Each structure stands twice: as structure tokens, then as C-alpha cells.
From TrEMBL:
Keywords: ATP-binding, Hydrolase, Iron, Iron-sulfur, Metal-binding, Nucleotide-binding. It comes from Subtercola vilae. CDD domains: Mrp_NBP35 (cd02037). GO terms for biological process: iron-sulfur cluster assembly. The keyword Metal-binding applies. The keyword Iron applies. One of its GO terms (molecular function) is ATP binding. PANTHER family: IRON-SULFUR PROTEIN NUBPL. Belongs to the Mrp/NBP35 ATP-binding proteins family. This is Iron-sulfur cluster carrier protein. Residues 30-99 form the MIP18 family-like domain.
Length: 401
């Protein structure tokens, strides 16, 4: 789980008993203010806004008692929340000791929280309709193993590091690798989402909210679901998973042009598509097809990313393990007959560090930002971050004459 910045130290106004008959009340307010900087690690909002803070009492020697209400029994974030609450309380000037009393929300309190997060009635609605301002990128490829998941994960982390609120839907049923790449698999166990009644809170890795089919199947079991079940699952991810207000949602699609790609096309026709290919001509052929299918469902292609390009050798030569030219070829084909040409966003070289970082759940855009592959991925992230949040389909407040 991501650690968060330590809450800033809040200064208690020095209050004498003459100025204010109840300085303990002022102290309790100062503690509450400090707690407004403690975020719930899963919901990523201040715990004070989520009504998770109960009574705060302070005695005349500065000993504070804080009541904390967790959403559910066994909440995986419990230890983090308790630790952060204690730190924030003790960081408040004048506080000499802190005791934290943890209880669980009542059914009514949970329902109120769900309503607060989802809106009136706590309705389960599609969070990423055309009116949403979230930029949605579906990452697709013609064939498997071209590095689509590795790039999706690293792009997401790079965007989150730029301060954007980012989520990933890992819809790669046959190779759900995002949790592993982003450190959510520990001792072979994939971190599961927390359920608050019918609301699912996605685990967070490196600041990115992640939901994956891999979190709902027994450890590493293969998924042999048919189209309708896959469709329902993707739909449920987009409705029941609480992502909050995202700037960017990335979808890691399975390779090819199968059921999931079509479901995503139907559910999110306003999503934009990033096509990943390798420099190999055979990969370029199938990558073009995945772009064409996306277009048929109304999705726009943002650009092509060529991955696994030439690896520089110590003697200065470049090892082109997968040949060259695949990215340019996909761009040429997808641009044919279009008003605006499809850009080649980057050519990302083969990189041992990129592969190794994926294996241990440590994305190289953070651990090794100067690796040539990181530099290329960060450049793509900067291009995506610079695009404004989606406005397609929004009714503009303009009255036609
Ligand atoms: N630029 C690169 N250099 C070296 N290794 C890479 C690079 N990109 C990806 N890899 C490695 O290639 C393998 C396949 O990558 P990844 O799982 O991301 O592909 P994918 O397209 O998502 O595959 P699938 O769709 O079949 O799951 C992984 O071991 C990954 O670490």
C-alpha cells in the first residue's frame, strides 16, 4: 500500500483559560484539522470528509482520545489509518499523548458513506459516461507479449507522479499482469479489493487505483469466461468499483480483437486507443487490425507505441532483436484515408531494467527514470498528461442563435 506524506504539523492557538473557558475544545478542533490531512488509503479522500472520525476529547494536560470508524471489519487499511491518525494527533501542538479507539461503522453510516461517494441514493451508475471528464485510454495490441501491460502500468505510474488521479482497469483476461507489475502481489497472493456493501474499493499501487480480473479469481487461475460473462465483469468494474474523480483511466485489454475489445468499444465508445506493437512486421499486421476494430466501435486512435525496439550495446552498436520499422508501418496503415495522421508516440527500446522492474513490482519510471526505456515512456506520459480532460459529448453552455 502506498505510504502518504506525513500530515503537516498543526499549531494550536495558545489559549489561556481567561481568553477561552474551554481550551480543550480548541485543542479538539486543532486535532480534527490535523486529521483532515489523513487520507483513507483506498478511497484517497480525507477521513474527516468520509465521516470516519468520531469523538475527539482532550483533557487539560493535552491527552487526546480519538474515535475512528472503519468501513468494515478486517479493513485492510486499518493499520495504516490508525498509524496516520496517531501521527497526525501527536503532531498537533500541545498534544502530549494520543489514544485511538477503533470501531466499525454501522450499516446506516456505511450507507451514508456510499451515498456520499456515489451521489444521491448511492446509485450504481456508469462512472465513465460521455459526460465524465476522465480521459480514457484503451491500450491494445494485435498479439500478446508485446509489452502492453508493462507500458500501461508504467504510463499510469508516470501520470500519477505528475499529480494526476489515475486508475487502471486490467481487462486482460488471459494475462492479468498489472497487479504484479505494480507490486500488489506479495508471496504469490494478489491483493484483493475491499468491499463496502456493494461498492468495491480498488487497491492502490504507486498512487494508481487498480482493478484486475486477477483479483477475482483464485490465485493465478486461468480465466475461461465466455463473452457475456466478460462483458458483465467489465461493466461491473465501471459501475461498482469506486474510482472517484479520475483524470485518466487506462484499460489494459487482452491482445487481439476479441470479446473484451468489443465490450469496451460498446461500453466506452468515447475511449481513445493506444496501439502497441513491436518493430516486427508480423506484429505490425495484427496491431493494425486491433486499431481498425477500435475504430469500427467509434473509438479514436491517439497514437501508436512501438515497444522492444533496438537495444544499444556497450560497443555502440544497436541490437535489433525484433527487426525495425513495425511502428512506422502501423502508423502508415492506420493513417491512410484519415483526416489527421495517427502519430508514432514513442519507440521504446528493449530494456533489461524495464523487464526486471516488472518482475519485482517496481516500475522503472520511478526506480530508474534515466533508463532509455523510462525516458521514452515518460515522454509518452507527458504527451498524454498535456491533453485536456475529455470534453467530448459535453453539452456546452452556448445557446445557438
Ligand atoms: N521494452 C522491453 N524490454 C524488455 N522487456 C520487455 C519490454 N517490454 C515488455 N517486456 C517484457 O516482455 C514480457 C511481456 O510483456 P507484457 O506482459 O507487458 O506484454 P503484454 O503485451 O501485456 O502481454 P499479454 O497481453 O500477453 O499479457 C514481460 O516479461 C515484460 O517484462
Amino acid at each position: 500500500m502506498q505510504s502518504r506524506t506525513a500530515p503537516a504539523r498543526v499549531r494550536l492557538r495558545t489559549v489561556s483559560r481567561q481568553d477561552n473557558p474551554v481550551p480543550e475544545v480548541a485543542a479538539a478542533s486543532a486535532v480534527r484539522l490535523a486529521l483532515s490531512r489523513v487520507l483513507d488509503p483506498e478511497i484517497r479522500k480525507p477521513i474527516t470528509e468520509l465521516d470516519m472520525v468520531g469523538d475527539i476529547t482532550v483533557n487539560e494536560v493535552g491527552e487526546v482520545s480519538v474515535g475512528i470508524k472503519l468501513t468494515i471489519v478486517g479493513c485492510p487499511a486499518a493499520d495504516t489509518i490508525e498509524r496516520d491518525v496517531r501521527a497526525a494527533t501527536l503532531g498537533t501542538a500541545g498534544v502530549t499523548a494520543a489514544s485511538i479507539h477503533v470501531t466499525i461503522m454501522t450499516r446506516e453510516e456505511r450507507a451514508a458513506l456510499t451515498e456520499k461517494l456515489r451521489g444521491p441514493g448511492g446509485a450504481r451508475t456508469m462512472q465513465f459516461g460521455p459526460e465524465a471528464l476522465t480521459r480514457i485510454y484503451a491500450v491494445t495490441s494485435g498479439k500478446g507479449g508485446v509489452g502492453k501491460s508493462t507500458l500501461t502500468a508504467n504510463l499510469a505510474v508516470a501520470l500519477a507522479a505528475e499529480g494526476l488521479s489515475v486508475g487502471i482497469v486490467d481487462a486482460d483476461v488471459y494475462g492479468f499482469s498489472i497487479p504484479g507489475i505494480l507490486g500488489l502481489v506479495v508471496n504469490g497472493q494478489t491483493q484483493k479489493p475491499t468491499r463496502v456493501d456493494d461498492m468495491i474499493l480498488p487497491p492502490v499501487g504507486y498512487g494508481v487505483k487498480i482493478i484486475s480480473i486477477g483479483m477475482f479469481v483464485d490465485d493465478n487461475a486461468a480465466v475461461a469466461w465466455r463473452g457475456p460473462m466478460l462483458h458483465r465483469t467489465i461493466q461491473q468494474f465501471l459501475t461498482d468499483v469506486y474510482f472517484g474523480d479520475l483524470d485518466v483511466l487506462l484499460l489494459d485489454l487482452p491482445p487481439g480483437t476479441g470479446d473484451v475489445a468489443i465490450s469496451v468499444g460498446q461500453l466506452l465508445p468515447h475511449a481513445e486507443v493506444l496501439v502497441v506493437t513491436t518493430p516486427q512486421p508480423a506484429a505490425a499486421d495484427v496491431a493494425e487490425r486491433s486499431g481498425v476494430v477500435a475504430r469500427q466501435t467509434g473509438q479514436k486512435i491517439v497514437g501508436v507505441i512501438e515497444n522492444m525496439a533496438g537495444l544499444s550495446q556497450p560497443d555502440g552498436s544497436v541490437l535489433e532483436l525484433f527487426g525495425s520499422g513495425g511502428g512506422a508501418e502501423v502508423v502508415r496503415r492506420l493513417s491512410a484515408g484519415q483526416d489527421a495522421p495517427v502519430p508514432l508516440l514513442a519507440s521504446i527500446p528493449l530494456s533489461v531494467a524495464l523487464r526486471a522492474g516488472g518482475d519485482v513490482g517496481a516500475p522503472i519510471v520511478l526506480t530508474d527514470p534515466l533508463d532509455p526505456a523510462s525516458v521514452a515512456i515518460l515522454r509518452v506520459a507527458a504527451q498524454l498528461a498535456a491533453r485536456p480532460r475529455g470534453l467530448s459529448g459535453l453539452k456546452l453552455p452556448v445557446t445557438p442563435r
